[in-house]
Design a protein that fits this description.
426 residues; alpha+beta; Complement Module, domain 1; Immunoglobulin-like; six-stranded mixed β-sheet; three-stranded antiparallel β-sheet; 5 helices; 29 strands
Length: 426
C-alpha cells in the first residue's frame, strides 16, 4: 500500500502551490495532501466492499431460487393427459394433490375418476379413458322402430304411421291423407305495360319447371341440423308453411317453436291417489309415498310431515337408538336429460349448529359414481352430478349429515334424494 500512496502523493505535488519563501513544499502542504489521498483511498475501499456485498447477496438469492425449483420439481408428478372425449379437473401436480376426470355425453369413464400424486412422484389409481356408450342397448325406439347408434346419441327410424324421437307419436291421419295437389298450386300472373307476363308464387312456395308453384318443405331444409333447426321437438310440413309439435307432457310455447313443461301437479292433471305426493317432472309427473323406517332395535320414527320423519325418544341406555338418525327427509328433483356437468343438484345444512364440526357423506344409492358429496362451506354440503345423465332414468342417493362436538356425535340427519331424469333435453 505504501508505494501506491507515495506515487499518488508524487503525482499530486506538481499541482500544489509553491511556497513563496523557498523552492520545496512546506510540511503542512505535504500533510494536507497525504490526508486527502487517505480519504480518497478509504472511500474507494468502502465502495469496493459494498459492491462485493451486493454481488454476494445476489448470488445467494439466485442459488436459493434454483434450489427451490429443484425441490419443487422433485416433489411433483408429471401432469396427466386429458382423456379423449373427456375433461380433467385440477392442474396441481404437487405430492398430495388430486386430479379428477369426467367424460362427455355418450361416453363412459373407465379407470379411476380421481388420482392422487404420491410421495414416489407417481399417480395412484388406473389410467383413465372414455368409452363410447351404446345408446341403443336400452331399446329406446317404440312401436317397431329401428335404433341407430350415433357418436353421443341415438336416432330412431320409425315405421309407417309413427313419428317422434322414439317413434312414440302416431302420425295424424289428416296430415297423412293430404293429396299432392295441396303442396302445389298455380302461380299468380299479371300482364305489365310492355305486354309481357310476370308470375310469382305465394309465400312458402317456389317456382318449379313447368310454371308450377311447389311447396317449400321447411322441415327438410332446416330441422335436420341442430344449428338451423326451427322446432325444438318435431316439425310438421304443411302447405306453404310448417308447424311445431311437442311430446306428451309439454305444450307449445307462444313463440310457436319451443316446448314448455306442463305442471300436472299444479293444474290437477294427475292420477295420484290420496296419501301420495304428486311430483312434477319434465314431461310428466310421479306419484310417491315416502315411508318412515320400520321400528327396530328400540328405534322408531314418527311422520311429522309428508316428506319428514322424526325419531321417537330413545329408551334409557339404548345406544343403538342414540346412534340412529335424528330425522329422515325425502327430496325429489326433476332434471332434463343430458345436462352439462359438474352440476350442483342439492344442498344440505342445519339452522341450529351447536357442535364444532359437520361431516357430509353419501351412504348409498344407484348413482354408479354419477353423484358425489362435497363441502361448500363450514355448514353446507352439496350433492354434485359429476357427468351428464341421459334419460329417461332415475338416480337415487342417501346422504348423511353428522354433527360433532370434540369428536363426539351429537346427532345426524338422513336425506333421501331421488332425481327423475326426463327423456328430453328440454
Amino acid at each position: 500500500m505504501l508505494p501506491k500512496v507515495l506515487v499518488l502523493v508524487a503525482l499530486a505535488i506538481p499541482h500544489l502551490p509553491w511556497s513563496s519563501a523557498q523552492d520545496c513544499l512546506s510540511k503542512q502542504q505535504v500533510a494536507n495532501t497525504i490526508k486527502q489521498m487517505q480519504k480518497l483511498l478509504s472511500s474507494h475501499e468502502a465502495a469496493q466492499l459494498q459492491n462485493m456485498r451486493n454481488l454476494k447477496k445476489q448470488l445467494t438469492l439466485l442459488q436459493g431460487n434454483i434450489q427451490k425449483q429443484m425441490v419443487k420439481q422433485n416433489e411433483s408428478c408429471t401432469l396427466l393427459p386429458v382423456p379423449l372425449n373427456g375433461r380433467r379437473l385440477g392442474k396441481k401436480t404437487v405430492v398430495g394433490h388430486d386430479v379428477h376426470f369426467l367424460c362427455g355425453p355418450g361416453f363412459l369413464l373407465v379407470g379411476s375418476e380421481t388420482r392422487t400424486c404420491l410421495n414416489n412422484r407417481t399417480w395412484s389409481g388406473q389410467q383413465t379413458f372414455c368409452k363410447s356408450i351404446n345408446d341403443c342397448a336400452s331399446n329406446p325406439c317404440a312401436n317397431g322402430g329401428t335404433c341407430m347408434d350415433g357418436t353421443d346419441r341415438y336416432s330412431c327410424l320409425c315405421p309407417s304411421g309413427w313419428s317422434g324421437t322414439t317413434c312414440q307419436a302416431p302420425v295424424y291421419s289428416y296430415w297423412a291423407t293430404l293429396s299432392n295437389s295441396s303442396f302445389s298450386r298455380q302461380p299468380r300472373c299479371a300482364d305489365n305495360l310492355l305486354g309481357s307476363r310476370q308470375c310469382s308464387c305465394d309465400r312458402g312456395f317456389q317456382m318449379q319447371a313447368g310454371g308450377i308453384c311447389q311447396d317449400v318443405d321447411e322441415c327438410q331444409l332446416f330441422q335436420s341440423s341442430r344449428s338451423t333447426r326451427i322446432c325444438l321437438h318435431e316439425c310438421v310440413n304443411v302447405p306453404g308453411s310448417y308447424r311445431c309439435t311437442c311430446p306428451e307432457g309439454y305444450q307449445l310455447h307462444t313463440d310457436k317453436s319451443t316446448c314448455t313443461d306442463v305442471d300436472e301437479c299444479a293444474e290437477n292433471q294427475h292420477n295420484c291417489s290420496r296419501g301420495q305426493m304428486c311430483i312434477n317432472v319434465f314431461g310428466g309427473f310421479r306419484c310417491v309415498r315416502p315411508e318412515c323406517p320400520k321400528a327396530q332395535l328400540n328405534t322408531s320414527y314418527v311422520k311429522t310431515s309428508a316428506a319428514q320423519c322424526e325419531r321417537s325418544p330413545c329408551p334409557m341406555g339404548s345406544k343403538a337408538c342414540q346412534r340412529a338418525a335424528n330425522s329422515i327427509s325425502f327430496h325429489y328433483l326433476p332434471l332434463q336429460s343430458n345436462r352439462t356437468a359438474p352440476r350442483v343438484l342439492f344442498k344440505m345444512s342445519t339452522s341450529r349448529f351447536v357442535g364444532d364440526s359437520l361431516r357430509f357423506a353419501i351412504l348409498g344409492g344407484n348413482s354408479q359414481g354419477m353423484l358425489v358429496v362435497q363441502r361448500a362451506d363450514r355448514q353446507t354440503g352439496e350433492l354434485v352430478l359429476t357427468r351428464p345423465a341421459v334419460g329417461p332414468t332415475t338416480l337415487e342417493a342417501e346422504l348423511e349429515m353428522s354433527e360433532f362436538a370434540r369428536k363426539i356425535l351429537l346427532g345426524k340427519h338422513i336425506f333421501r334424494v331421488t332425481v327423475f331424469v326426463s327423456q328430453y333435453e328440454f
